[in-house]
Every structure is written in structure tokens, then in C-alpha cells.
Amino acid sequence: MWLIFKKEILELLRDRKTLFFMIALPLLVFPLIFGGMFYFTGKAMTTSQTESLTYAVSGAQYAPELMAALESVDSLARIDLSGNLSDKDTVAGIISRNEVDFVLQIPNNFSNDVGQSGQITLKLVLNDAQLNSVQVRIQEVTDKIESMNQRNAFANLGVSESIQAAMLDPIIVQKVNLADAREQTGAIFGGLIPYFMFILCLQGAMLPAADIGAGEKERGTLETLLLSPIDRYKIVLAKFLTIATAGLTSALVTVISMGIWALVISVQMPMGPVVEFISAIDGFDFLLVFLMLIPVVATFASLLLALSIYARSFKEAQGYMSPLMIVVFLPIIVTLIPGIELKGVWAWIPLTNVALAIKELVKGTMDYVQLIAIFGSSVILAGALLGFCVYWFKQEKVLFR
């Protein structure tokens, strides 16, 4: 068995394409892709939210103080337009022709005296498909005027500041959160980590699996291997260990890559909370996160080997394996549903239990007793799939199907 395992590993190391998916992809390509995506997305959103916008106003004469406050905002530039800016169709045409970015319609009852005017409605007409935070910018201006008008109204009524606060916000709900910073941050990121790990483990094991099963059929080397005086189950175990080694290597490189890039980002960018969150996870939990990938890799390796042995050709094997990428999403999505925890039946569902366990480890709330169910269910599933592989290897149709 170990002789076959050594042979398969040597052939694996000679395949540059496989090495790329096992090492280069998780170490360099994925971090660069996702890092670049987050960087450019953040930069684009920041630019769009701070870019200078043009606007026109209907009823400006009714609110001189509001107009003065708007004109003091550097990122807003007023343009005087002719036409009835209170008419819906006229304003729609102006916006569609990009003459201005938005139109502010001020009613004729606008007044800073709340007791006289009552509640006032300002209409902001715009194409809100752009991420330029128009309403947020206008709200910042109106909030200041609103606060001043409220204070003046209460002062005219002779209401003290404490009563003012009670009238504006009569009931306050004070939240006392017993969750620490690690648990809160882990609840957010803990569900995303298995997503990347599972995909990379599967990607790293797919090519070796397709090659050492269906690939050997096409090359005609499987017949020679089956004629050798080696038990069929040993051949299956050797191939299984080869695929598992590829998957674990990809997983290990992924964990190392995540650590390196997290360190680089923390040095280059002010990410104190992220650094504190990572430093709160002790070495034992980091080790368990990696060990949690063993049942995942065992499941993937046995399933991929079964598909590869069943397939007639390398191309057919790839056709069987490609949909697994979609299948892997399902157990991860389940972990993001509120109320789903690593308890009861969920602790026995393969892949889902591992994703939940990684989430709990990151949060620091792991129930280590559930490790029995996690590894037990994975052993049962992987054993059943390996049993199919051994059965199929003992059939002549493994070659002639």
C-alpha cells in the first residue's frame, strides 16, 4: 500500500497544474483576488460617497437658513435651473438628462418655528441607483437645524432640558451584552471561514482524484496495477490517502496563507479590533480548526475517489465532480441560518457539523464533547464511500464499464 502511495505522491509532485491548485491558488491567487475585490470596492464606494454633487432647489426662498447650511457643504454645488421644479415630470426630465444629481423641494410652510409650522416634509427627488449617499448628506444638514428648532420650541414653552430629553425619547432600552468581543466578531466571520476552507480543500483534491482513477483508465496503467499481487483494498487506501494528502496540503497552505495575509494587513492598515480578535484565539483552537478539516478532507477524498473510479474517462470524472462545488455551498449556508447550533442532529450531519464547529471555535464557545459526533459521522460516511470503492475495484467492469 505504501509503495503505491509513494508512487502516487511522486506523480502528484510532477504535475504542475495540480501543484498550482494545491499551493499557489490558496497562497497567492485567492488572497489577491479577494483582497483586490475588497480594496477596489471600498475605494469605489468611498469615492462615490464623497464626490461632488450638483442640485437644484424649489422653494429656496422659504428656507434661507437651510440654504445657507447646504451651500456651506463643500461636496454639494447648487445650480439655478429654469422651469417649474415642483412639477414631477419636469424634475424627472432634469434628473434623466443629468442636469443635476438631485432636486430638493421645500414646501411654502417651511419655518424654524415648530409651533407655527408643525411637521414639515422636504422632498428629495433623485435617481437612487447610485451609491452616493445623497439622503445621508442632506440628513446631516437638516438634523442640525431640526435639533436647533427643537431646543428653541422647548425653550419658548419653558420646558427644562431633562423633560425635553424625556419627551423626545420617553423610553430607553439599555442593552447589556454579555458576549465578549471575540464572540461577537466570531459570530460574523466564523461562518465565512469554512466557506473558503471547504472550497480550497475540494479544489485541491479534485485534480489528483480525477487523475489517479479515471486518468489511469485512459492511460491504460490501471490494468497493470490491478494485476499486481496487492490486495484491492490496499490499492484503494493508497489512492484515498493520496487524495486526502492533496486536500490537507491545500487546507494547511490556506490556514498559513490566512495567517500571513492577516499579519500583512494588520501591519499596513489600522485594524486594531481584527488583531485583538485574532490574538484572542489560542493555539489549541487554531490547531482544532485545522484538525476539523481532516473529516472534511476524508469525506471529499472518499467521494471524489468513488466518482473517479466509477467514471469511464478523465473528462467524465470532471463532469461528475464539478457539481460538488455547488453541493458544498449548502451545508455552509445552513450554518448562517439564525438558530442553527452545534447540537442534536446538526452535530451528526457531515460538513455542516464541521462548519458549525469551526464557527464555534472561532467564537470561543465550542462544546468539545461534540467532537465525538463530528468525527464519528465523518468516519461513517467516508467508510461507506471507501467500501464502495473497494467493491467497485473488485469488479471487472471497473475497467470495461
UniProtKB/TrEMBL annotation:
Q: Which Pfam families match?
A: ABC2_membrane_3
Give the molecular function GO annotations.
Answer: ABC-type transporter activity
Q: What keywords is this UniProt entry annotated with?
A: Membrane, Transmembrane, Transmembrane helix
Coiled coil stretches, renumbered? none
- GO CC terms: membrane
Q: What is its main location?
A: membrane
Q: How does it sit in the membrane?
A: Multi-pass membrane protein
Please list every transmembrane segment annotated in the UniProt record, as residue ranges. 20-40, 240-266, 286-311, 323-349, 369-393
Q: Where in the cell is it found?
A: Membrane
Which InterPro entries does the entry mention?
A: ABC2_TM
Ranges for domain ABC-2 type transporter transmembrane come to 17-383
Write the protein's name. Answer: Sodium transport system permease protein
